[in-house]
């Protein structure tokens, strides 16, 4: 089951940036949105990693959420999700290392592509399967 071509969270977040001041009036709204965005990120790529989940140990704040991911190569990472994007903040679950200065990635796809050759292959295969299914649909 693959549904990576549409992410409703992306649409909601685009409007949130434009109307950010309106949401500031509702206490806790941004916290909920960042956690929801993190859950959407996880659901989007879970098929191509060994394990991935939003951290229950590290705090979600108004502007940040943390995601734990284990690649198919069995490497563990803790990712920070902010409006700037995603970046690795530690090389284990539920950790942050302030000394780590890793680059931000605009998408989870870009970040995982840089970390995991197995992810790259699985994601590419999933896209090919999706394209083949769309081709068959259009021919019938």
Automatic annotation (TrEMBL):
A Gene Ontology molecular-function term?
protein kinase A binding
User: May I have one GO cellular component term?
Assistant: cytoplasm
Name the Gene Ontology biological process terms. Answer: regulation of canonical Wnt signaling pathway
Q: Where is the GSKIP domain?
A: 34-134
Pfam families on file: GSKIP_dom
Q: Which domain of life is it from?
A: Eukaryota
Annotated InterPro entries: GSKIP, GSKIP_dom, GSKIP_dom_sf
What the record says about family reads: Belongs to the GSKIP family.
Q: What is this protein called?
A: GSKIP protein
What does the organism's lineage look like at the top?
A: Eukaryota, Metazoa, Chordata, Craniata, Vertebrata
Q: Which gene encodes it?
A: Gskip
